[in-house]
Amino acid sequence: MEKMKVLVYHGPGRLEVEQWELPHPGPGEVRVKIQYCAVCGSDLGAYKNASDRFRPPLILGHEFSGIVDELGEGVDTLRLGQHVCGNPPIYCGKCWYCRHGHYNICPNRLSLGNSVGVDKCNGTFAEYIVLPAFTLVPLPDNVNLLHGSLMEPLAVGYHAAQNGNFQKGETVTVIGAGPIGLMTILSLRALGAGKILCSDLSEARLQLAAQLGAHVPVNIKEQDLLEVVRRETDGLGSDRTIICTDAPSSFYQAIAATRSCGDVVLVGMIQSKIEFCPMDIFGRDINIISSYTFTDEILEAVEMVSQGKIPLEPMISSIYSLDHGKAAFDALAAPGNKEVKVVVDIWGNQKGTAKWRE
Predict the structure, then answer these.
(1) What's the CA gap between 291 and 296, in Å, rounded?
(2) What is the model's pLDDT at position 320?
């Protein structure tokens, strides 16, 4: 019986490298030899705290790239050796949501690396995975596999950046300069936003945000975000404000920072109850737009990277081997760490490079 190496989540603080049976694809499925898998904030959340969304034992991971290794019967959309990334939901294709293009919230879905949906589904911190062919997105020849592992979070930011009625030249405020906030800034720049403001507590993150396209970084330990927004917009407010943090206070900041008739886009997963007066929204005709993951925007995001309009290399701060996958999570969980995107290199392709860690 052939085996493969996997990184298994056994509960908060517990990740173990194990040997599991090598899978083979059935009809309509493809086996992918995973090359890289990036650590998502949701993966890190499971590592820190127990959640029904992550029922152990479980292989985490959904931000990945790899090489088509084996084709199941009937698969003619992909070829052996093809480089791919993934669109994580394994959806039914038959429900109202799937038939209307909202397969990201299909009630019958499985979601890679978690327990959201009808059952838990092992993810991509593994040497191989078998997936339905329709979940895989081909990578152009000029997009390397390392950057391919960031296409999923980029698509989240890309979806948030254009959600609602985005117009070129808009003034946009992004609250939060974590990975999704930075991906949103990259997307806004590529889409033709006008002035981009970005707020955060971390000076290092704000410096990176400026490097990636934010025109006005705002350190909220030293500056009042609303004062800066008013100054930069002649008192009007941002055309749209995108919340890329889970801090409940960001919701109030966003409402106050957005001009009347503007958009507030919620992509950060605020999980606490908050109180607000509906008239603060209704009386100013502000649109509140939720932005949950993405659908086919990943195809546009891949094309933007292929065209050189979105640079992903600055997003990657560290690369770890699969054997040291727990160390990657520990680095991200450390207070005050300066990591941005940490990637697990399944086969050690990047060993010896500047970002390689043991």
Answers:
(1) 14
(2) 98
Instruction: Determine the residue type at 219.
Output: N
Q: Give the predicted TM-score (pTM) of the model.
A: 0.96
Nearest by Cα to 123 from 212, 54, 179? 54
The amino acid at 22: L
- CA-angle at 184, arms to 181 and 188, nearest 5°: 140
Task: Kindly state the average pLDDT of the residues 47-69.
Answer: 96
**335 pLDDT tier (thresholds 50, 70, 90):** very high
Q: What distance in Å separates the CA atoms of residue 23 and residue 129, rounded to the nearest whole number?
A: 7
Measured from the Cβ of residue 266, the count of other Cβ atoms closer than 10 Å reads: 20
Distance, C-alpha 340 to centroid of its chain: 12
- Tally Cβ neighbours within 10 Å of residue 330: 15
Average pLDDT, the chain: 96
DSSP reduced 3-state for 116: coil
CB atoms within 10 A of CB 305: 24
Q: What's 286's DSSP letter?
A: P
Helix (H, G, I), strand (E, B) or coil at 110: strand
Structure tokens at 41: 């904030």
DSSP state for residue 260 in the 8-state scheme: E
Angle between helices 151-162 and 297-306 in degrees, nearest 10? 110
| Cβ proximity of 243 and 184 under 8 Å | no
Q: How far, in Å, are 182, 325, 330, 332 from residue 335 at the CA level?
A: 20, 18, 10, 8
Residue keyed to tokens 């006005």: 216
Which H or E run contains 70? strand 63-71
Tokens 């100013």, residue located: 284
- Residue 221 tokens read as 């330990």
Dihedral angle sign, alpha carbons of residues 151, 152, 154, 159? positive
Q: Which two tokens stand for residue 323?
A: 């054997």
CA distance 291 to 265: 7
Categorize the per-residue pLDDT at 117 as very low, low, confident or very high, splitting at 50, 70 and 90.
Answer: confident
Q: How many residues does the chain have?
A: 358
- What is the distance between the alpha carbons of residues 289 and 16, in angstroms, rounded to a whole number? 39
